[in-house]
Automatic annotation (TrEMBL):
<protein>
    <recommendedName>
        <fullName>Thioesterase domain-containing protein</fullName>
    </recommendedName>
</protein>
<dbReference type="InterPro" id="IPR006683">
    <property type="entry name" value="Thioestr_dom"/>
</dbReference>
<dbReference type="Pfam" id="PF03061">
    <property type="entry name" value="4HBT"/>
</dbReference>
<dbReference type="InterPro" id="IPR029069">
    <property type="entry name" value="HotDog_dom_sf"/>
</dbReference>
<feature type="domain" description="Thioesterase">
    <location>
        <begin position="64"/>
        <end position="131"/>
    </location>
</feature>
<dbReference type="GO" id="GO:0016790">
    <property type="term" value="F:thiolester hydrolase activity"/>
</dbReference>
Length: 161
């Protein structure tokens, strides 16, 4: 590994850790960055009983899986771009293959498939730790560099924005 690759990897990992510490819902859910390798990010979440869909079940609420997939996918955008810029989720679609049971940690592995100046396309797999069978897959689209002129319904820019 060259020194420049070490610096980029180190910067990506540092950025990922900052992301998990500074984004309230990620911090509250206990998301952790496992790895950042090129355009791929792996995040881990240890389920808590308050994350279960029902008190009588250990099935994890789907919104927790959405949050994990969204966070890992957003980090994959930064990992591929190797820069921090305002980014917004445009679309996140999930296919559930089987229930997520809270007896093991969840892993989200997100890969940036295509990156342009304005849009990023991400694929994310969610698994139970220690099990290779998928729980869910997600495909996401992110808008990059969202800072700038604000647009509102009707298509006009807000004055002074």
């Amino acid at each position: 590994m060259t020194d420049s690759n070490r610096v980029q990897h180190s910067d990506a990992v540092s950025t990922a850790w900052q992301f998990t510490e500074q984004v309230p819902h990620g911090r509250d859910l206990g998301m952790q960055v496992v790895s950042v390798n090129g355009n791929q990010v792996c995040m881990r979440l240890t389920p808590e009983s308050w994350m279960f869909a029902e008190d009588s079940s250990e099935e994890i609420c789907t919104s927790v899986l959405y949050s994990l997939a969204d966070s890992a996918s957003g980090l994959a955008v930064f990992a591929e771009a190797r820069e921090l810029s305002p980014t917004a989720t445009l679309d996140l679609r999930m296919d559930y293959l089987r229930p997520a049971i809270g007896d093991r940690a969840l892993l989200a592995v997100a890969i940036c498939r295509q990156l342009t100046d304005e849009v990023a396309f991400i694929h994310c797999d969610i698994l139970s730790e220690g099990d290779s069978a998928l729980l869910a897959t997600a495909n996401a689209t992110f808008m990059r560099n969202t800072q700038g002129q604000q647009f509102h319904a009707g298509g006009r820019a807000k004055e002074g924005a």
